[in-house]
Design a protein that fits this description.
This protein is mostly helical. It folds into two domains: 1-68, Recoverin, domain 1, CATH 1.10.238; 74-149, Recoverin, domain 1, CATH 1.10.238. It has helices spanning 2-7, 24-27, 31-34, 39-46, 58-68, 74-85, 95-106, 116-130, 140-148. The protein starts with a helix and ends in a 5-residue tail after the last helix.
Length: 153
């Protein structure tokens, strides 16, 4: 992990990799993130940067790798997935979050975008399946309940 992290830095900064932050633009060059539709959210969620540039420290990078590891517990994976899908960072997945989530998964192109009616039906289905307390949003425990029924998660 340290070798991969330090290789994202310019040669002259590699000796101090533990105390250096890697810019988001470099993190996004990782093959695992390059084609991920949630790449920007992943950087946002795992970055501890104070100035909002989504750069990562070595510890941030380790956290990200450990969460995406096959051996990470499902409750940790689902917690971070929830945070990644919570685009407005308000602690719930509401209709706007779900719409952004669907758009990320289906692509942003005109040919792949769902119609308003299709999007509305899909969001209604997601909420019907997941919104246990029927408040119109999905909280972390509701999300984890749904994920727990999906062994491939």
């Amino acid at each position: 992990a340290y070798k991969r992290f330090s290789e994202l830095l310019p040669k002259e900064e590699r000796e101090n990799a533990c105390s250096t932050r890697v810019p988001k633009s470099q993190i996004l060059t990782l093959p695992e993130l390059r084609a991920n539709p949630f790449q920007h959210r992943i950087c946002r969620v795992f970055s501890t940067s104070d100035n909002g540039d989504d750069s990562m420290s070595f510890e941030d990078f380790l956290d990200m790798l450990s969460v995406f590891s096959d051996s990470a517990p499902s409750d940790i994976k689902s917690h971070y997935a929830f945070r990644i899908f919570d685009f407005d960072d308000d602690g719930t997945l509401d209709r706007k979050d779900l719409e952004k989530l669907v758009n990320c998964l289906t692509g942003q192109g005109e040919e792949s975008r769902l119609s308003n009616a299709e999007m509305e039906q899909l969001i209604r289905n997601i909420l019907e399946e997941s919104d246990i307390d029927k408040d119109g949003t999905i909280n972390l425990s509701e999300f984890q309940h749904v994920v727990s029924r999906s062994p491939d998660f």
